[in-house]
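Section 5.1 Outputs to date
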Amino acid sequence: MNQKACALGAESGVNRRSKPLAKSLFDTLAAVKFAVTVVVLIVAACVAGSILPQGTDVTGYLEKYPAAARRMELFGRLGLTHVFSSWWFVGLLSTLAASVATCSLRRFATVRVASGPTRVRALGSMLTHISILLILAGGVVRGLWGEKGQIELHEGQTKGQFQVESGFAALPFTLRLEDFEIETYGVAKPADADGEHDHAAASSDCCNQLTVQWAERNLTVRLPIKLNVEQVLAPTDEVPSAANSYRLKILRYEPDFAIDMKTREVSSRSSESKNPAILLAVNGPDYDDQTWLFAKYPDFGMHAGGGKDQKPLPLRVRYENHGAAKPAPALAGPVKSFRSTLKVLEGDTVVQTPTVEVNRPFSYKGYTFYQSGYNPQDLSWTSLQVVRDPGVPLVYAGFALIIGGLFIVFYVNPWLQARRAKA
């Protein structure tokens, strides 16, 4: 009997201690001072994340300011170069969410027992607290599952992945850059007086198109390759690596190909595009060599060394030249705007043809593409920023709910009170 009484006494003692502890935690989370403290910490973190370079921007910052390497290394260890995806920032958001949820529970209790305008006001206040919860939940979802990176494209190039800080992330579709345009405030420089460009200028934009077929992977791409611009050929649903990709680069262009059979030296008979040829370097799985390709003889290729014991080119490459393309005019003033015309492909089917401009992004299947950059030395190249933020619907729902809650508190409730006073 005494043992049973002791056991009951011990159990009641534990309950008395646990209840004050739970109540103390509940009161702390519901306290305004606690919530304000957490909000101040979150604001400070957001300021740090806005001032300091974040993620992939750190590399560009260090290239510009190499003396800041040690300082940025320290910031990285403290998690200040990945603020919005760091565990402590997500923890702060979660703590604030717990505080708001505690306040919402108190408001819910008031809604249940109150009546009249008091109940309406409590309902509006509760909706406002719930809206803050939704906005915080959207921030947590973005920090945990959001993605941000870059995709770089040349005209005619197709890609199904984009670069993130940790490597590459796959897209559930593929993008092809059909056209890239730059608009300036000035006027582009005209061609020479006779309307022609010299051989050196033409060689900087030497060909119209390369059609590359990789039969083993059932892959065909068209590349408007320029001199010394490396292109990567890889399956769109795989991350490029040395085992599953080829790198192609045009090393040389001759508008009127000729070869000295004794010395094996290649030259051009004239600057006219009578027998255009390119020297293509291909590097990939079990192949690393250079081959001459001819626009007038697309089925014929000549190894750069001239030997007959070389390995055959593993890709089928056709060089199409309809007259050497003239180089893009130099930019004659400040850039006004630049835009990319894209094609969105699901398999081999084009589902959309959007245009992306500065301040006019394009969204598809949860991914948003922003016009990011260009290369004044290569006007067929552009970079797009890729953002996937699955928390956006929650944030928008929170904004809608906060408007409704504030409307009830500041408009509906006073109207009901005034109506009740007149009655």
